[in-house]
Amino acid sequence: MVKICCIGAGYVGGPTMAVIALKCPNIQVAVVDISVARINAWNSDTLPIYEPGLDDVVKQCRGKNLSFSTDVEKHVSEADIVFVSVNTPTKTQGLGAGKAADLTYWESAARMIADVAKSKKIVVEKSTVPVKTAEAIEKILTHNSKGVEFQILSNPEFLAEGTAISDLFNPDRVLIGGRETPGGQKAIETLRDVYAQWVPMDRIICTNLWSAELSKLAANAFLAQRISSVNSMSALCEATGADVSQVSHAVGKDTRIGPKFLNASVGFGGSCFQKDILNLVYICECNGLPEVANYWKQVIKVNDYQKTRFVNRIVSSMFNTVSGKKIAVLGFAFKKDTGDTRETPAIDVCKGLIGDKAKLSIYDPQVHQDQIQRDLSMKKFDWDHPVHLQPMSPTSVTDVTVVWDAYTATKDAHGLCILTEWDEFKKLDYQKIFDNMQKPAFVFDGRNVVDVEKLRKIGFIVYSIGKPLDEWLKDMPAVA
Ligand code: NAD
Ligand code: UGA
Q1: Where are the alpha helices (DSSP H) in 244-289?
Q2: How far is CA 320 from CA 120, 353, 467, in A?
Q3: Which end of the chain is more exposed for a tag (fewer CB within 10 A), N or C?
Q4: For residue 74, what pLDDT is reported?
Q5: Cα 198 from Cα 20, distance rounded (Å)
Q6: What are the residues facing 67 on neighbouring strands?
Q7: Rounded to whole angstroms, how far apart are CA atoms 22 and 322?
């Protein structure tokens, strides 16, 4: 029986391995992690991540051909194929700080593999890494191998959170990069045979190592660029009276452009878009390509601009001050159907409002108070490092309360802002919310989920990203 071990039981390692186990009953899959709490959760009824459909898949395989363990070395030494799906955060110190990927966790995983391996192994880069990482990993493995043969493959993951299980069941493509040597090609075939148990062959793309590594960074950069493009248009829509949803619809009808990923928002978030573009920018700079680096940097600048613009809209609408005012924040996760808050635009928006002395009442159906407090008190990029390397006990932010429903959050509030597009925010009783708020009552919709006309009829002053402006906001500056 083929044995797979995956180092890193996170958002990628857990779901991908669970699906491999489900689709390949002839393969034994072990997912390992240094975090005891995470592994305990994977072995319990409350999984460490919220992902629709994941519970079902795990329940079907756990205890059969899927296991979760902290015995990293044992499972690595027994495996034929070792996936490495550890975090690859942005460096916070030293050379390339604030841009380059920090490969500390990857390197220590590689050294451990070399240390414990007694039989030949295929080592698969599942984490998103800079181009040419495989070369560095290969060197670490071969210089420490004690004669064991290793083949390195790049097999980046394209799943999106919230739809991870359907993305894994039915991927647009699976990408496998390997060395153009007989050994490298054989390793590619071995991994291809795993995916071929449920993915049609014409969707499995095999390339050289560097193309696979770069394609992952490029795909995320292209996706983020689409959002910054539509968000830049949203600012122009507000200035001209155009409606960004109508513009997106009209533009997306061109089959060369396509309709997906054109929703204007308060900004993109998530653990990867910003990190991977910063990484791409750094690689361009290191390769003497400053024009290319600056081109991609702009995608992040527009994203930051969009978040600042949103905060400024709120403050300027509310008589240029939110000091001491209660503002309800509906939604904190970086998108709907996940409890993940990594790089969520809500962090920057809330910090902006707190900076203006607002009192926030936050509600998100999947995010707990501890997480929100951590996020609002942590420094940029610290979140992607293991807990033991993060600040000991971040001081809690006093002007923030976290509540468990939207009606409590909005009671007596001066304004409410929607920062995540949870379906339940579309169905709220806005008349009831209006009746219980201070007047004038403001709605700031960062996700275009509310029916603007309906809310204006109730009496709200409504700002919705990229939509024709409320009379109230017309002469107010969008960016201070
Ligand atoms: P994560 O932080 O959820 O999981 C990483 C896990 O690796 C953690 O549980 C950590 O404890 C563990 N780990 C770190 N070093 C270890 C070691 N030496 N031994 C054992 N375990 C170790 O991260 P994630 O979101 O799963 O992302 C992992 C990688 O996949 C990143 O490179 C990311 O860019 C990429 N990626 C993420 C997504 C996503 O949607 N989150 C999608 C595609 C690609
Ligand atoms: C993204 C990519 O979609 C995945 O293919 C990739 O594997 C993953 O990053 C990764 O490498 O981590 P994810 O971040 O989970 O997936 O979620 P997305 O659906 O891409 O959303 C990212 C952010 O963009 C969210 O904040 C979302 O609200 C925002 N977004 C998305 C918009 O503002 N407008 C849109 O039209 C689409």
Answers
A1: 244-252, 273-286
A2: 66, 12, 21
A3: N
A4: 97
A5: 9
A6: 30
A7: 52
135 Cβ partners below 8 Å, 6+ apart?
A: 209
Q: How far is CA 147 from CA 84, 114, 124, 150, 187, in A?
A: 21, 10, 19, 9, 18
Which one is catalytic: 24, 272, 284, 350? 272
Ligand nearest, relative to CA of residue 343 = 2
CA distance 4 to 29: 5
State how far the alpha carbon of 181 is from the alpha carbons of 81, 82, 185, 279, in Å.
18, 20, 6, 29
* Interval between CA 412 and ligand 2 midpoint (Å): 34
Q: How far apart are CA 476 and CA 215, in angstroms?
A: 43
Q: How far is the CA of 457 from the centre of ligand 2 (A)?
A: 34
Strands 400-402 and 359-363, bridge-based pairing: parallel
Give Cβ neighbours of residue 37 (< 8 Å, ≥ 6 apart).
48
Q: H or E stretch including 329?
A: strand 326-330
Q: What is the pLDDT of residues 281-334, one digit of tens each?
A: 999 999 999 999 999 999 999 999 999 999 999 999 999 999 999 999 999 999
34, 105 Cβ separation under 8 angstroms? no
Which regions of the chain are under pLDDT 50?
480
Q: Which atom of ligand 2 is nearest to the CA of 276?
A: 11
Closest CA to 224 of 156, 287, 131, 306: 306
* Cα–Cα separations (whole angstroms), residue 75 to 13, 36, 58, 69, 78: 15, 15, 19, 8, 5
Q: Position 112: which residue type?
A: M
Q: Which residue(s) pair with 327 in the sheet?
A: 360, 415
For 86, residues 6+ apart whose C-beta sits below 8 A from its C-beta are 7, 8, 10, 105, 106, 109, 127
Nearest to 133 by CA among 114, 164, 110, 116: 110
**Residue 219 is encoded by which pair of tokens?**
């795909």
User: What pLDDT does residue 324 have?
Assistant: 96
| Ordered alpha helix ranges (H), 79-130 | 104-116
Q: Specify the pTM.
A: 0.95
Residue identified by tokens 């493009």 is 229
Cβ–ligand 1 contact at 87 (below 6 Å):
yes
| Ligand 1 lined by 448 (C-beta under 6 Å) | no
The three-class DSSP label of residue 152 is: strand
Edge-first strand order for the sheet with 359-363 is 400-402, 359-363, 326-330, 415-418, 442-445, 461-464
**Active site (annotated) includes residue 272:** yes
Tell whether ligand 2 has an atom less than 6 A from the beta carbon of residue 15.
no
